[in-house]
Design goal:
By secondary structure, this protein is of the alpha+beta class. It is built from eleven helices and eight strands.
């Protein structure tokens, strides 16, 4: 595909803005945050995020009547690519901006949009994701967290447990998939609730990861409450809303992720040149293969977005998202494995500059450790392959005679 003159002018303006402002007080934030590093400079990145909001650079794909810029699909791609290319710090309000906001625009009531979109746009309220449970991770339809209306019908009362709850330790709100129809099974009888986190009926326990941060949490609901009108879509029909949100999760920002992968690959190649590992022809071939695969990955991501923007059916769009998830997750794991081979025995040791009693990782070590989760979170490989088999290839859920 080719970008229009207007798109390229937009790219130039955005690139100049980032170059001008990722300097001075913000310069030290370059490269901070992101997967496995969400604990880095959280307060400073929040201030940067709010600065972007004041300058009109949050929620850029939202309609102008809701405070966004109303950017076209390809201008949104440009935004995420240029933001990643500038090595700008990871934003703090990704779940609100990229997931909750679009979900409310698609499924919410006018009152819900009026209440929540402004604070998301201004980065005044942060959001956590309450999907997975101990027995409902990739099998999300097995959700057991329950919610019932109070006797006077004014509130939902929530009981249960969520796990791997992104950002719950610093957010004010969480979107929760809960079972609201007693006796219902699988994707029937679920509701999509908006629940305030700061209340006595909620306990948040951070989960320490291999990389040292605690991006994810366990969240326990014991008689937690939220207003009766804070259900998105119809009660009992929340599965469609939950799946709609996951579609937004695999949207335009994924091409910015590819730019980040390119930077990580460059770091690995630079280290290989510095320590002589590049002289190994087998390792050099693996690095070259990763570069070629990354180029194909970007082209495939563009193809998937083109299918959606061209109005192809949801099965085609869903298939493209699943393919892209499988490809990038496995590519990133291979990058981590190559990174450790580049380090050799050095990869077994902590950085000599690390202070006593601290847990500091080399960049290549961090890539390797965090990438182990890539084929699990955001939809495991097995689930993505089932989606492709059922929705795209039209294969039966179970073999005949099983």
């Amino acid at each position: 595909m080719g970008y229009s003159a207007a798109d390229e002018a937009f790219r130039a303006d955005l690139r100049a803005f980032l170059e001008d402002h990722l300097a001075g007080e913000w310069k030290g934030l370059r490269g901070l945050g992101g997967p496995g590093r969400d604990h880095e400079a959280l307060d400073e990145r929040l201030e940067w995020n709010r600065f972007l909001a004041r300058e009109g650079w949050t929620c850029v794909g939202w309609p102008t009547e809701h405070g966004g810029r109303g950017l076209s699909l390809w201008q949104q791609v440009i935004f995420h690519e240029e933001y990643a290319r500038a090595n700008a710090p990871a934003t703090v309000n990704h779940l609100g901006e990229q997931l909750v906001g679009p979900t409310l625009l698609a499924f919410g009531t006018d009152a819900q949009r009026e209440r929540f979109l402004g604070p998301i746009l201004r980065v005044e309220e942060l959001w956590a994701q309450g999907y997975s449970e101990p027995n409902a991770g990739s099998d999300l339809a097995n959700v057991q967290t329950r919610a019932r209306l109070s006797d006077d019908g004014s509130q939902w009362v929530v009981d249960g447990q969520k796990v791997w709850t992104s950002n719950a330790h610093f957010s004010q709100w969480v979107f929760v998939v809960a079972r609201t129809e007693p006796g219902s099974q699988r994707h029937h009888g679920l509701s999509f609730l908006l629940v305030p986190l700061d209340q006595p009926g909620i306990e948040v326990r951070p989960i320490e990861q291999l990389t040292g941060g605690s991006e994810f949490n366990e969240v326990f609901f014991t008689g937690a409450v939220t207003d009766a009108d804070l259900v998105v879509g119809e009660p009992g029909r929340g599965w469609g809303v939950a799946m709609g949100l996951l579609g937004f999760e695999r949207g335009v920002s994924t091409l910015g992720q590819v730019v980040g992968f390119q930077r990580e690959l460059a770091v690995v190649c630079e280290r290989a040149r510095a320590n002589g590992a590049i002289d190994d022809p087998v390792l050099r071939d693996r690095l070259a293969s990763l570069q070629a695969e990354l180029s194909v990955m970007r082209s495939n991501g563009i193809r998937g977005l083109s299918a959606v923007s061209g109005g192809e059916d949801s099965a085609a769009g869903g298939g493209a998202g699943s393919i892209f998830k499988i490809v990038w997750a496995n590519w990133h794991q291979r990058l981590g494995e190559v990174a450790m081979d580049v380090l050799g025995a050095e990869g077994l040791l902590q950085s000599p500059e690390a202070a006593a009693g601290t847990y500091e990782l080399d960049e290549l070590q961090r890539i390797f450790l965090f990438a182990r989760a890539d084929t699990i979170y955001g939809g495991s490989d097995e689930v993505q392959k089932n989606i492709l088999a059922e929705r795209v290839l039209g294969l039966p859920r179970e073999p005949k005679g099983a």
